[in-house]
Amino acid sequence: MTHAACQFVTPLCFQALSGHPVHTELLDSNQEQSMGHIHLARWADCLVIAPATANRMAKMAQGIADDLLSTLYLAAECPVWLAPAMNQAMWRHPATQRNLKTLQEDGVKIIGPASGEQACGELGPGRLSEPSEICAAVLASKPVQTEPALKILITAGPTREALDPVRFISNRSSGKMGYALASAAIAAGAEVTLVSGPVNIPAPAVKRLIQVESAQQMHDAVMANIANQAIVIGCAAVADYRPAQFSSQKIKKTEQNFDSSLQLTRNPDIIASVAALDHRPFTVGFAAETQDVEDYALSKLRSKGLDMIAANQVGLTAGGFDSEQNALKVFWPEGEHDLGMTDKQTLAKQLLALIIEKYHEKNST
Ligand code: PMT
After folding, report:
1. Which atom number of ligand 1 is nearest to the Cα of residue 284?
2. Which of 204, 176, 178, 200 is nearest to 191 (CA)?
3. What is the pLDDT of residues 83-139, one digit of tens each?
4. 147, pLDDT greater than 80
5. Could you confirm whether 120 is annotated as catalytic?
């Protein structure tokens, strides 16, 4: 709801009648935490702006982003519909008609306006279309899903291996690559389960989001959700080792006889466990390497029994971890393909297309 909309109907009333939370502020600490404006834009299947005033149309045509709705519009990659509503003279004004043309050229679909008696008492075009007409127009253009959605499970982010209640061993994974893969899979029509370590980015609107901390928890969550998955992609940076002992109290630096060496024990290998299942999904791993990327990636492809592996060069200057961009060299038993340096969203779409192609190839033989 825009601030102007709130003058007509209170957000509380709108929330009670719709049964859904109402978003009004661009920078609301609560809303930003749970579903920021970028996440809202990614979450939506489509954006319907109804009613759209002359002012709203002018802002959209100019790309002004000074409130939640205008920001949402610029961030949205989904189809956008506009149902204009305004005085007939305002609708006919050349400025509004110019903005209308710009918006149509930008791909915005227009519903109405209807013609007739207006709230101000005048007659003419500018009435908001009936809600049923708006719904019908939007639903009519929804693509019909003909095949059951592909089930894809993705792991993302780092794991944390606790030493004591306040300290842990972890790594630099931000979750960006795995979350971009989840978004690309949603856009491709898949039913996505995302098993994520602790990250500070909003999650895409996956079917199932399972948040975990440790490698053992990630392993258990993956195994509990593996049934009927067509594809599993292990993008998480999983700790290979965890402290052999967890101290239930904070370890004190003054402790007598403190053994400064850290004993570690192996964590389960999640992606190898998935690949070892009897009825295994198409299993894709990642390889994060600072050197000899190709050799190590091929050795992991074989030793973990994977269908495919996406290798990235990582390091303090190389990208990969916690960067906006990445490049991947993808290997499968019969071939390889380079995906050049680009933003993680684009890279995720390219990698997912390759994974789905190889998945179908394997299942057709
Ligand atoms: O999250 P970002 O900041 O966007 O960074 C992205 C990334 C660099 C983390 C990502 O592109 C990546 O490379 N992820 C895999 C990191 C990793 O742990 O690689 P690895 O070479 O150590 O592991 C090989 C494969 O085994 C991976 O698929 C990993 O998920 C899996 N693994 C590893 C250990 C373990 N105990 N269980 C596993 O499943």
Report:
1. 28
2. 204
3. 999 999 999 999 999 999 999 999 999 999 998 888 888 888 999 999 888 888 887
4. no
5. yes
According to DSSP, the β-strands at 282-289 and 264-266 are: unpaired
Among 179, 286, 291, 307, which is best to mutate for testing ligand 1, by the most ligand atoms less than 8 A from CB?
286
Percent helix, strand and coil across the chain, each rounded to 5?
A: 35, 25, 40
Give residue 128's pLDDT. 93
Q: Do domains 3-141 and 151-248+262-364 have the same CATH topology?
A: yes
Question: pLDDT digits over 276-313, tens only?
Answer: 999 999 999 999 999 999 999 999 999 999 999 999 98
How, if at all, do strands 335-343 and 325-332 pair? antiparallel
Q: Which atom of ligand 1 is nearest to the CA of 320?
A: 8
Token couple for 197: 């370590």
For residue 237, the 8-state DSSP code is B
> Which option is the CATH number for 151-248+262-364: 3.40.50.10300, 3.40.710.10, 3.60.15.10, 3.40.50.10490?
3.40.50.10300
Report residue 329: phi and psi, to 5°.
Answer: -115, 120
Q: Does domain 3-141 have CATH number 3.90.550.10?
A: no
The span from the CA of 210 to the CA of 195, in Å, is 5
52-56, 219-223, 317-321: range with lowest mean pLDDT: 317-321
Spans of all domains in the chain:
3-141, 151-248+262-364
Pocket of ligand 1 (CB under 6 A): 155, 157, 173-178, 215, 234-238, 240, 267, 269-271, 285-288, 300, 312, 314, 320-322
Mean of pLDDT over the chain: 91
List CB contacts of 260: < 8 A, sequence separation 6 or more: none
The pLDDT score that the predictor gives to residue 32 is 47
Whole-angstrom distance, CA of residue 116 vs CA of residue 148: 45
Distance (Å, rounded) from C-alpha 265 to C-alpha 240? 9
